[in-house]
Each structure stands twice: as structure tokens, then as C-alpha cells.
Amino acid sequence: MRKLNQITFIIVVFIATTFNIVAQNNPKTNLWKIEGDNIKTSYLFGTIHMIPKKDFIVKDKVQKAFESSDKVVLEIDMDDPNYKVDFMKLSMLNEGESLKTYMSDDEFKILDTYLKEKTGVGVNNFNTFKPMMLMSVLTMTAIGGGPLESYEMSIINMAKSANKEVSGLENITDQINAFDEDPYEEQIDTLVEMVDNGNSEELYNQLLQYYLAEDVDGMYDFMDDYMNDDIEGMKRFLDDRNNKWIPKMEAYSKDNAVFYAVGGAHLGGDQGVISLLKKAGYTLTPILD
């Protein structure tokens, strides 16, 4: 369970948490106004990267914040024409490598059987990819059946319709490298645990309820309950990234009113984006309705 809970939720929302927790008491909202002397008024919106279509909604307050902004900034500029090519390239193993070589025969059988049952294709279809690609597929099955929506893709489409430029706080290389620091054999162990344990759907649904309630602190505390066993991993996936984002947000908002959209659990906690922006001297106002 140690690696299972950590990695499962990292891939679902690409977030983690920190061991050094300071009590937070944020109002229940996923949308915040950012103000300061040296920036244009901007907005911070917390997303959940994949969500069942039946639960997906862009509220009026989010639409208004988007419309009042000049520019859109996501974690990664997924509208970049090179994004898909770079993602596929960075997700693949080195030439001559095979995913199957990183797992035992028993592990291959467990994963192959599960994948064929859930998706109709087996491990061999992913044999040239890194384990994170398999993890992504397995995690998608945890969200359940039915159509899915992406806040990021929806926001990109809104930006295109409104002729707003889209940029990113980091690039796909940064995110892939974070996964590559864990040995592939350990990642395979996590995949097998994920299948054997079978509670990923329940955990995702709990996280989803916090998101739908716009409970930033609830999301943060929930993540801590399941990801508090790898301090360095937590720092790598959350704290370091958040801290790198702040100067980039300052630069983006210097000349533009920006609509920022990042994973919701990046917002809470002492090293969360809300707290870090306040420490940097900016005023964060919750937009409740």
C-alpha cells in the first residue's frame, strides 16, 4: 500500500502533499483572485484533470474570471503543437528496451489479464512505453465507466474561441522526469499492487467529492492521509513544483491579467500555491459565487 496510494493519486491529479503541514482554514472554493502592486489582477482556478462528464461543470464565477483575463496559463501548455509528439517521445523506453523485461512472469500475467478485461488490450500493446503509461491507463479505469471530461482541454477550447493565448508553468519534460526518478521495477510493483488491491475507484471517488464541494483543505488533508510515507517523493511532485511556479506566475501577471488553472490540491497547504503567493506579498481573495 505504501507506493500504491502515492503513485495512484499522483497520476490521477499529478499532485502529492508535504509532511510539513500547517493548519489551513480556506473557504470552500476552487477560484481565487490574485492582486498585487506589481501585477495585473489575475485568477487561480483549481481543477481535477479527469472527471466523469456527469460531474463536469464550468460555473458562472469561473466563466466570468476567464472572460476578465487576457491570457490562460496551465500547468503545461497542452495547446502547444509539439505537446503530443513530445509526450509520446518522452513516454517511450529507450530503443531496444521492453517493458516486459521489468516484470516477472506472474506480474505480466496479472497486468495482462486485468488490462484485457478492462480495456480489451494487453500489456504487449504498451511494451515500448515506460510504466507510467500503463499507470495512466490503469488509473483511467479507476475513474469508472462512462464518458470523461478534462477541465484543461475545456479551458483550451474556451481560449481558442476567445482568441486568448495559452501558456504553461512547466513543460512535459519536467513532469516525465519526476516519474523517471523511481526505478521501473518499483513502478511495476505499484501497478500490480493497484490491480491486486482494487480500491482505486473508491479512493478516486472520495477525492472527487472533496473537489465537487470545492474543499481545497479537504483535498489536501485527504492526499496527506494516503501519501505521507515518501517525503522526498512528495517534495518532488508537489512542493518543488509549486515553488518554481510562483516566479513564473509573477512574470506572466506583470503584463497580463491571467487565468491560471492547475490541479486543485496544488492550492492548499503551507507549500500550496495560495500560501506561497500570500508569502510573496500578494492578496488572495476567495471567489465564493
From TrEMBL:
InterPro entries: TraB/PrgY/GumN_fam (IPR002816), YbaP-like (IPR047111). This is TraB/GumN family protein. It holds the Pfam family TraB_PrgY_gumN.
